[in-house]
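Reply to dn_fold:

You asked what the input looked like. This is it:
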Amino acid sequence: MKDSPAQSFYLYMTSTDRSKNHEGVLWAVSSITGQAEYVNSTNHILNSTATISGSSIPISGATTGIGVAILDGSGNQITSFGGGTQYTQGGATVANPTGTAEIWFDGSGNPKAVTPSQPLPSNLTDGTTVTSIVAGDTGFNGVVTNKGVKTLTFTTSSSGAQTILANTDVRGYAWIYVIYSSVGSGLANTGQFSTTSGGTYLNSATFANATNTSSPGQLGVASGQIYNSPVTGNYFQINVSALTSGTFSGTVILSTASIPFPTTFSSQSGTWTVGANSATGSAVPANAFYIGINDISTGNLVAARAAGSTINTASGILGAASMAVFDDVAPTSITENNFGAVRMSANRNLYGTIRDAAGNERGVNVNASNQMSVSVDNQTPGTGATNLGKAEDAAHTTGDTGVAVWAVRNDGNATSFTNTTGDYNPISTLSDGSVHVVQQAQTSTGSNVAGSATSVTLLSANNSRKGGSIYNDSSAILYVKFGTTASTTDFKVALAAGSYYEIPAGYVGRIDGIWASATGSARVAEET
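and this is what came back:
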């Protein structure tokens, strides 16, 4: 509804049926004489029921509601309303959620959308400052500020075992410092950490101080020292196992910084004198601390020289040279763990020796041709394809590396290369390179085989055979075959009556024979 210039109002009607007093809108003036018109909720038709006076149209009853359409700025009817989808805690997520956007207002009253780059502003305060919040924190401060420090103090005069700063919450802090102002007498204590308040506390061996920075250990008992350690638990306490008398007091500092306070101290009695920045060539001030190169002959500062400068002994150029001693006559030994100068020759070459595993120093002999004499023992060659050695029973592969075995030509074994049994001897070969092989037999076994017109075995196969012979003691021809089943057409040699045959050295297989007629016998001998 909207006020008209004549203090009237109008209604947008959805019904197509209007009375004679209504056009596109319904007007009501301050005073109307006539029948009141009511809207029927069923068909939206105005009904005349009574006389009205006043500045409004009375509408009442379940059947007299007015149908109203809401239009947007373009005149289009708005048919759906709502604030977007509502979500409950723990509900399932959706890919593209809809809802009412949250905004906030900056200090100038300008609205801002809540985004990662424009988060809701929040203030952390106890009525004073953030620093006082950290300092007064009695529990876990989830928002730990950079370089935040919290200081705790303690004091006790009770003797015996006790716990100091029991269950101190150190969550959110990176480093802890313990400084004693008084340690009493007979103090023994450890610093302890635990993951839970009131839980199992374990002694920490991570505390360092000015004299123990490289090898941290247990929390000490020296007064005036700064003991520091990384925070290795959620809760901390000092466990006092003994305190004979006096007061044990001090300060514990918790820091969010991950780098410990310096714990290196120095002291100096009397007056310290710092020399001025003296120019090159001037004398160094007495009792002054300085950094630079000092000419020991004059006591003056010497300018630094750039790399590659020309050497001129007359110009006084100095440097950090490696020095050695020319000591050829009677070199002396040095005491264990002492510094000493190395030795050099007259032409400034450093001497060098080889030190064995037992600590013995050995010299090396070099001849005039710069050849060094080397004797190698206990050498175990490798057995790979490119090594000189090869493993027993290993398979050969083309391209394997090895050392050739050489032999000495000795025609007819005319030369004896050794003097006695047990001496090393080269391998002897014939002129064609074949190796001299001599087979020696210790035993000769004889047998007689009766003449037969069918094939019979003269000698069975024998790997131990070194040689043998066959004598045909028959008037018939004996046909001999190296192998199985001899015949008059399949044989190696034919022995006439009374003939003799030596079996070639190296043949250890079976030998068969057959006679032209079954008469006589074969006299067979086998050497092993």
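Residues 1-64 have pLDDT under 50 and may be disordered.
Hope that clears it up.
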